[in-house]
């Protein structure tokens, strides 16, 4: 048995008092979970502490909290390891972020998480009726690509950690977008393109993810929601050519075109090309492009005034000495019929190859 | 120590002061840098979104060029985003030999090949400072302790997440290094909410509001925590935190005026270099206050 200090965030809306930190001591073997610690406090000291929990085995996804500031399942975090990472000696436990708190460690999953999950139409919209008296049959290898998103247990840890949601509560968010990929990648679904169009056009959709890896870091099931969002973007731009009004398509094309042309990033052209689906001229002629370029004008002027950007640098960018090598690589890979993707979730990090893990459909377009 | 050196695109583009500072600081740390001037963009997450095999091949090309530098201990980058994007590719390349062979087949016509092996590494300048040079060694080289300066660290997502990919098993304190370096140089690291959050840069062209709210909020938090300046090992973060700071102020509805240093600039100041040599005049948010403090330190 080891003694551990817990600092639990308490809040009771009926008390009329603001939230506060309360200190508790528990004794447990270090390999037991933080949830065991909380339950010991409830058992021995204060039964009024509110927490959701059920399976205690990282299956039900109920006990999401923040431990030492990091979103996690309380049952899936060893108390000894949490103590090692604790600052000032005590393990801090608080409710998940980005969601309203109902009481103590219980958040309102309905108000945020489930609302967003429903937003992405989280069920199959089949292309056709199943064969008479039978069910849909899909070859197992065609479902490999979505197994990672299917591993989600809806605990909300990624929603809690999402840094985009923190500033934009309307962002559809990592859990719901991973769920969206589960159906976009399902060969039986008949609404792939309209799903992607919807998520690309929504100003709080796939292009509102800032690529910060917070969701990847905290997911207890290795769903890597951000990777699923990147897959959604790849499908939307490359397979369906969906030109969204958020410049997601344009930004990706502009970036790729610049690397194809120069080998390194020509920053001064990224913005105007983004607004023209990758084309410099189009970006400077379109009304929407002109509006956004005008919006960026003060930043451009500030850059020029500080001396970090010279007019020459804004107009001329050197090509790599071996740019034809880069161009050849790009053409060689982009001309393949199927994109090659290695998904380490499927092959494992130490890498045993499997056919299905390496292939990603090139799409329907 | 001899290193293959990948400066990245932005350090030679919109943050030339970063590239210049590294050139000044490296000799003072006994780093011999062989610049990979034929290497290509890391893709910054965008090429990965576009085509995974392509980004893995482009970075394998950079790694192969670095491995061809005779006598180099490894490869150094000076950008959190390059570190993250390249580590992601390296993880896949190292995981599967058949995938690696496929990628290398695209490099073969140019006589290049990426060789996987435990001993070869690609490290950000921050990691080099702590793991290769060492904090004691760095402390011994300080000519001008940055006493009295309160510096808020801003790491950049790509260098701290995901921990499993970024070698935290071997180096568990990598998310503390910037704080440690600030301390060793004689300054005081400032605790504030935003140190390991996202600067917002990746969505600046797609969702300006999300992007600049993030940048603005972190700068504001650092100001409220009493910081004299921010410091970052990522030039892309620098673009959103410095170049975009005047615009970000409008999105958080308050005045912001916090200088943002590049990591090598901060190191250079402590090693005795002058602000001008480190390009500190080429910032959008004036570094004048920091420069005055440095001048006072010199006089004291």
Describe how the helices and strands are arranged:
The complex is a heterodimer of chains A (365) and B (300).
Chain A: E1 2-10, E2 20-28, H1 34-44, E3 64-67, E4 70-73, H2 79-85, E5 90-94, E6 101-103, E7 106-107, H3 110-119, H4 140-150, H5 157-161, H6 163-167, H7 174-184, H8 192-201, H9 214-218, H10 225-239, H11 248-262, H12 267-274, H13 280-285, H14 287-306, H15 311-315, H16 323-334, E8 339-340, H17 344-347, H18 355-358, E9 359-360
Helix pairs in contact in A: 3-7, 4-7, 7-10, 8-10, 11-12, 11-16
Chain B: E1 2-6, H1 16-28, E2 32-35, H2 46-50, H3 52-67, E3 75-77, H4 80-95, H5 97-107, E4 122-124, H6 125-133, H7 135-141, E5 150-153, H8 177-184, E6 188-189, H9 208-224, E7 229-232, H10 235-243, H11 245-252, E8 260-262, H12 263-270, H13 288-299
Parallel strand pairs in B: 1-2, 1-3, 3-4, 5-6, 5-7, 7-8
Key phrases:
A: about 375 residues, alpha+beta, five-stranded mixed sheet, two-stranded antiparallel sheet, about 45% helix, B: about 300 residues, alpha/beta, four-stranded parallel sheet, 13 helices, 8 strands, about 10% strand
In short:
With 365 residues, chain A is α+β, with helices and mostly antiparallel strands. Helix content of chain A is 45%, strand content 11%.
Account of the 3D structure:
The complex is a heterodimer of chains A (365) and B (300). Chain A has helices spanning 34-44, 79-85, 110-119, 140-150, 157-161, 163-167, 174-184, 192-201, 214-218, 225-239, 248-262, 267-274, 280-285, 287-306, 311-315, 323-334, 344-347, 355-358, and strands at residues 2-10, 20-28, 64-67, 70-73, 90-94, 101-103, 106-107, 339-340, 359-360. Chain A has 365 residues and is an alpha+beta fold. In chain A, helix 3 (110-119) packs parallel to helix 7 (174-184), helix 8 crosses helix 10 (225-239) and helix 11 packs across helix 16 (323-334). Chain A is globular. With 300 residues, chain B is α/β, with parallel strands linked by helices. Chain B is 46% helix and 9% strand. Chain B has 13 helices and eight strands. The radius of gyration of chain B is 19 Å and the shape is globular. The interface between A and B is large, with 75 and 71 residues.
